[in-house]
Specification:
5 strands, rod-shaped, 5-stranded mixed β-sheet, 318 residues
Length: 318
């Protein structure tokens, strides 16, 4: 999986990338924007302030901008103060129970709020010094545009910080989603494999539910050798004995044979007289039989297995 990384805009200078701290704590953060704030709200307040005071000089435009900034920071400090005070009372409803650390923190938040309130009052006093001059009405709009250009740098830095914060979260979510999808695909593949290779299968060509075996047989020194029987005859006998306990009881045994050399005499009954198969080459065939037929053939195979050399991979009890 390729992780997409955020590339900061070309207009964002290098020094701005090193000042991305205090992005989530509203009590002391001096960044223009922090997580949870919408830059569009700041621009709206800036538009309203410039429309109200209509500064015609760069100095007056700076005063109006400072007043908007002071109001913005004050709102942030008030939110931080209310949030911390709420959490503090939730932990300890009575101030008598507050620890020294909690008292220190609430005093610190109070001090931040007081500083913001003083800064806001100074900005309001400075607004009184603005003199409306008889310039074109578009002059204050030009000053607004200039201030917005300065603020745009802060907005770009904020968006870069948000992207930097969210990128690993999105990457982890995408990786988790891919892992979950892979697990579902693997589980589905295993379920499909299990359904195909299950000892008990329900298929239309079987005419219902059947016990399915795979048998590999070859001839060595004119002797019949059973390579494997899966599941073993012992397991099939157990299934037949307890077939009534199954939701859909099996009604027959279906065998898939593979003969690597030819068909030994014990299995020549598999050759169709109307469509004879070659008996000197490797071949495969499927045969359906009743439980009685299976038991008769299983006894013959038990004697063959008892006389042949023991094989490491032969399933004695599958």
């Amino acid at each position: 999986m390729t992780t997409q990384t955020f590339t900061p805009p070309a207009s964002l200078p290098a020094y701005a990338l090193s000042s991305l701290n205090s992005l989530s704590h509203g009590g002391s953060a001096e960044s223009l924007f922090i997580l949870g704030e919408n830059p569009a709200d700041y621009y709206r307040e800036l538009d309203e302030a410039f429309a109200t005071h209509q500064p015609s000089t760069a100095q007056d435009a700076h005063i109006v901008t400072e007043s908007v900034h002071a109001r913005w920071i004050l709102s942030r400090r008030l939110r931080a103060h209310s949030l911390y005070e709420h959490d503090l009372h939730s932990e300890s409803p009575s101030p008598i129970d507050w620890s020294n650390e909690q008292l220190h923190r609430i005093n610190l938040v109070d001090r931040y709020k007081t500083q913001a309130e003083r800064a806001f009052r100074r900005s309001l006093a400075n607004l009184q010094s603005i003199r409306k001059e008889a310039f074109s009405q578009e002059r204050w709009r030009e000053q607004l545009a200039l201030q917005k250009e300065k603020i745009e740098m802060q907005r770009q830095k904020f968006e870069f910080a948000v992207e930097k914060y969210n990128a690993p979260i999105r990457a982890a979510a995408a990786q988790a989603a891919k892992k979950a999808a892979d697990q579902r695909a693997f589980a589905a593949e295993r379920a499909q494999h299990a359904a195909t290779h299950a000892p008990i299968q329900i298929r239309e060509e079987f005419g219902g539910c059947a016990i399915v075996q795979k048998v590999c047989i070859h001839v060595q020194d004119d002797q019949t050798v059973i390579g494997y029987i899966k599941p073993s005859n012992k397991k099939v006998r157990q299934i037949i004995a307890h077939r009534a306990s199954y939701a859909v009881p099996p009604i027959k045994v279906v065998r898939n044979y593979f003969f690597s050399d030819n068909i030994p005499k014990q299995y020549e009954f598999l050759i169709d007289e109307h469509n004879p198969r070659p008996i000197e080459d490797a071949c495969g065939t499927q045969h359906q039989m009743s439980f009685d037929e299976f038991h008769q053939l299983a006894k013959i195979e038990d004697r063959i297995i008892a006389t042949q050399p023991k094989q490491k991979d032969f399933p004695d009890d599958e």
